UniProtKB/TrEMBL annotation:
PANTHER family: NICKEL ABC TRANSPORTER, ATP-BINDING PROTEIN (PTHR43297:SF13), OLIGOPEPTIDE TRANSPORT ATP-BINDING PROTEIN APPD (PTHR43297). Gene3D superfamilies: P-loop containing nucleotide triphosphate hydrolases (3.40.50.300). This is Nickel import system ATP-binding protein NikD. It comes from the Bacteria. InterPro entries: AAA+_ATPase, ABC_Ni/Peptide_Import, ABC_transporter-like_ATP-bd, ABC_transporter-like_CS, P-loop_NTPase. The keyword Transmembrane does not apply. Residues 2-243 form the ABC transporter domain. Keywords: ATP-binding, Cell membrane, Ion transport, Membrane, Nucleotide-binding, Translocase, Transport. One of its GO terms (molecular function) is ATP binding. GO terms for cellular component: plasma membrane. The lineage of its organism: Bacteria, Pseudomonadati, Pseudomonadota, Alphaproteobacteria, Hyphomicrobiales. It is a peripheral membrane protein. Its main location: membrane. It is found in: Cell inner membrane.
Amino acid sequence: MLVIDDLSASFRRYNGLFRQDFITRLSNITLTIQAGEIVALVGHSGAGKSLLAHAILGLLPANAIATGTVSFEGQLLNQHNLVEHRGRNIALLPQQTSYLDPTANVGALVRWAALRGGKPLEIKNRLNRVGLSDDVAQLFPHQLSGGMARRVLMAQATSGGAKLLIADEPTAGLDPANRDIVLKHLRAHADNGGAALLITHDLIPVLSYADRIAMLKDGQLCCVAPTSSFSGTGEMLASPYAKSLWRALPQNDFYAYA
Ligand SMILES: Nc1ncnc2c1ncn2[C@@H]1O[C@H](COP(=O)(O)OP(=O)(O)OP(=O)(O)O)[C@@H](O)[C@H]1O
Ligand code: NI
């Protein structure tokens, strides 16, 4: 469904009046996401996860320069066709809950997302599916807890019927029960023929839901492996970084990779 080919992104920096240089934050990313699949993108803070999400959607800031290509269902994405795809065929669940429009209540926000994708409104159903009650529709963003706001973003991202969901930290700040509701929702989306790029810091909870794990380290994909490789002592993992991260998890007794 999505093919990312040799994508790199750099930022222009000015050092002095006429001097500038470029600092590379994503290097030669090549990754495919098939229909029916959840690919979890994991990596440390600052590794470039959100940057990759924004690069796919053509939402990089003005001081960024991207090279490489991204195709969606065989079509090369560019700034023109992305305007049509965003919110319709490809939806973003942003990392920042502050992206919720403070002037509209939750019902209106979810309604707009559904209308944008030409889908039935079903506001209450959309909210219930992410563990929010009907009356949340009346609340404004400033009246939501952090976890509620995150689930409103999820309801918005899935209301327009987009085939590809790019979910940037959709479970941040959620308790385990609500985290599982959100991850199950993403799984159901993929099982119904959709696909998702699931960005997270937290590897363990997504192991039960994702098909593959892509690991970013300092802007480079150091490992793309089936979820089943993250088991035992990590002997199925080719990447030393992925192996050491896996072994260092508390669940794996903090073993250092030797
Ligand atoms: N507009 C920008 N200008 C310059 N550098 C930027 C800009 N946006 C992001 N960066 C840099 O790109 C790198 C990757 O940032 P990104 O937000 O993708 O990290 P992340 O992996 O999503 O981290 P986190 O898990 O904390 O959300 C960081 O070093 C960041 O400082
Ligand atoms: Ni991020």
